[in-house]
Description:
Elements: E1 3-7, H1 15-25, E2 32-37, H2 42-53, E3 56-63, E4 66-72
Parallel strand pairs: 1-2
Antiparallel strand pairs: 2-4, 3-4
Amino acid sequence: MTLTKLDLSGLKCPLPALKTRKALKGIALGDRLEVISTDPLAVIDIPALIQQTGDQIEITERVDNRTTFLIEKRNGASK
């Protein structure tokens, strides 16, 4: 199992969701993706994306203006 970190601090909607989607396509089943975002809409957009792809958010952590998502790749065919 591999952990890939993706720091999207400073990017605004829709870029965090789009870059998360692209990163998920590049990791293997069972691997994890840690996404860091300062975009306030990421708390809506990234969970919506994960619902579409069939992957799983394991942890969502909010500290100040920063949200960190730990996502497990579960679906081999991310859309």
